């Protein structure tokens, strides 16, 4: 076996409750993660040195040096397995870059699975997730997929029972937002308001909607504590949210740290209607239609691989 390809999904946070800053600088979270059908594909191939190449929309915004999260994942696993990290990592980006949908984290999770397969490390999946948490708070969920509650800084996961299919429209913006900057803005806004920061807790109505597969109820209970901060840094997001809701979405929120906005539609046809309304409004760069929940990082069987890098 000379190369391995892993497909890995984007995420949207159905609830993102942000608590106080911890001594280590991270915020205590309750995050209801949901994996959706926008995918990156990560292919690792044996090579003379560790190199990264990237294809897809805004590929130029993705670093190809050792700061790339996938390259860091390769180096970390190589170190743990006592293995040389010399592989070619090729990223085929379908997840918006710096869009609040965990694109870099997805690539890290996929690179861990791909290299462990290539090197026959046989590392248990929960161990790969623990390694992933060293690279970023969203990485373990990118590996797990489905729908799950994340606590701590978002890395401690428990699957949430869910029924039904959820149809989503994502409004992509020009340019990204920096995750630390959005958390920082959230703190600044809270300090200015002078209100105490509540301990984050799961929304019972949201969990009930997921258990029942109640799409309108889910649309009504989407929340994101980083939304005001993202809008404060990118005021045009308000118009994007308004346009999606006016276009018939059952709910709309900023995805994670933004600037992508996520809209829940009643069904597949409804999603296409919302996407058209968003495109006509001129309030976003482009749209993507997707569904959830989907599984996490998985090896693509060789016979199903579309092209070699
Ligand atoms: C916004 C979310 O995407 C929601 O799922 C995540 O919380 C961010 O996860 P991520 O991109 O994997 O973030 P990390 O790489 O772990 O952290 C990047 C930066 O985000 C901020 N950060 C992240 C997670 C957290 N619980 N509290 C934080 O304050 C910190 O400034 C941190 O330095
Ligand atoms: N493999 C990667 N793919 C995309 N960006 C990467 C990658 N590795 C490092 N980065 C850097 O990380 C930054 C954030 O990109 P990413 O797509 O992970 O953002 P995000 O989806 O907002 O993350 P999150 O939702 O986890 O906060 C990019 O601007 C880029 O410089």
Protein architecture, described:
This protein is an alpha+beta fold. The chain has two domains: 3-160, Ribosomal Protein S5, domain 2; 166-292, Alpha-Beta Plaits (2-Layer Sandwich). It has ten helices and twelve strands. It has helices spanning 69-81, 103-118, 125-135, 139-144, 179-193, 204-212, 215-221, 227-233, 237-246, 268-281, and strands at 3-21, 27-46, 51-56, 87-93, 147-151, 156-159, 166-172, 223-224, 251-254, 261-265, 286-292, 298-299. The strands form two sheets. Strands 1, 2, 3, 4, 5, 6, 8 and 12 form an eight-stranded mixed beta sheet that branches. A four-stranded antiparallel beta sheet has the order 9-10-7-11, sandwiched between helices. Helix 5 crosses helix 8 (227-233). Residues 13, 16, 25-27, 29, 31, 102, 105, 136-138, 153-154, 179-180, 183, 256-257 line the site of 4-diphosphocytidyl-2-C-methyl-D-erythritol (CDM).
Briefly characterize the structure.
This protein has 309 residues and is an alpha+beta fold. The protein is built from ten helices and twelve strands.
Structure ligands: 4-diphosphocytidyl-2-C-methyl-D-erythritol, adenosine-5'-triphosphate
What is the CATH level 1 assignment of the largest domain?
Alpha Beta
According to CATH, the fold-level topology of the largest domain is Ribosomal Protein S5, domain 2
Annotation, overall tally of beta strands? 12
Largest sheet: 8 strands, mixed
Helix content: 25-40%
Spans of at least 5 consecutive residues with low confidence:
none
Beta strand %: 25-35%
Q: N-to-C terminal Cα separation, in Å?
A: 15 Å
Helix count, per DSSP?
10
Q: How confident is the prediction overall: mean pLDDT?
A: 96
Indicate the radius of gyration in whole angstroms: 19 Å
Task: Please provide the ordered H/E string of secondary-structure elements.
Answer: EEEHEHHHEEEHHHEHHEEHEE
Number of domains: 2
Query: Which structural category do the helix and sheet elements fall into?
Result: alpha+beta
Could you say which overall geometry the principal axes of the C-alpha atoms support? globular
Pfam families: GHMP_kinases_C, GHMP_kinases_N
GO molecular function: kinase activity
Pathway: Isoprenoid biosynthesis; isopentenyl diphosphate biosynthesis via DXP pathway; isopentenyl diphosphate from 1-deoxy-D-xylulose 5-phosphate: step 3/6
Domain GHMP kinase N-terminal: 68-146
């Amino acid at each position: 076996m000379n190369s391995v390809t892993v497909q890995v999904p984007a995420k949207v946070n159905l609830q993102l409750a942000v608590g106080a800053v911890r001594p280590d600088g991270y915020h205590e979270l309750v995050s209801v993660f949901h994996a959706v059908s926008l995918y990156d594909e990560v292919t690792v191939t044996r090579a003379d040195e560790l190199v990264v190449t990237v294809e897809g929309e805004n590929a130029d915004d993705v670093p190809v040096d050792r700061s790339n999260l996938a390259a860091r994942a390769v180096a970390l696993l190589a170190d743990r397995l006592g293995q040389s990290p010399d592989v070619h990592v090729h990223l085929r980006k379908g997840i918006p870059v710096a869009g609040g949908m965990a694109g870099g984290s997805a690539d890290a999770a996929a690179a861990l699975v791909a290299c462990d397969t290539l090197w026959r490390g046989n590392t248990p999946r929960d161990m790969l997730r623990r390694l992933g948490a060293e690279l970023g708070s969203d990485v373990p969920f990118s590996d797990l997929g489905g729908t799950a509650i994340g606590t701590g800084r978002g890395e401690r996961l428990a699957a949430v029972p869910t029924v039904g299919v959820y149809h989503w429209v994502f409004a992509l913006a020009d340019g990204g937002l920096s995750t630390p900057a959005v958390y920082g803005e959230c703190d600044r806004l809270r300090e200015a308001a002078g209100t105490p920061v509540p301990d984050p807790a799961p929304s019972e109505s949201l969990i009930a909607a997921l258990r029942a597969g109640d799409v309108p109820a889910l649309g009504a209970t989407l929340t994101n504590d980083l939304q005001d901060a993202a809008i404060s840094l990118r005021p045009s997001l308000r118009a994007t949210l308004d346009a999606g809701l006016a276009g018939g979405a059952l709910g709309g929120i900023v995805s994670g740290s933004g600037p992508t906005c996520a809209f829940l539609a009643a069904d597949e046809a409804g999603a296409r209607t919302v996407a058209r309304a968003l495109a006509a409004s001129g309030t976003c760069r482009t749209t993507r239609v997707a569904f959830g929940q989907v599984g996490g990082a998985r090896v693509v069987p060789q016979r199903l691989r579309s092209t070699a890098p």
